[in-house]
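Hi V.,

You were right to ask for the full record rather than a summary. Here it is.
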Amino acid sequence: MNEIRTQDNFIGRVLCYIGWGIIVLSGVGFLIGLGDLFELLEDFDELSSFLVSARLTGLLVSIVTGFVFFGFSEIIRQLSLTSGSMERRNGRKPAAPKHLPNL
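Predicted structure:
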């Protein structure tokens, strides 16, 4: 059972790293623009409130996008683990369906 837990999929790892990169880079970009954000809050007219809400929305969207990449990486990892366990349990590779074309 430990073999299954230690197995890892390359595509799953790459998607996980992309998710981390999206979250970290968007956070750094938000922190860099924090001075401009406070400057916009000083005026507090309609345009500045719109720009503040647009920046906060951009930060939240990028965080959600990073978590979507995390989800995809976990799905791919679980699919690779279940296919590997099926091969080990049966002692052979599962047969491909005959009605699907070969790619």
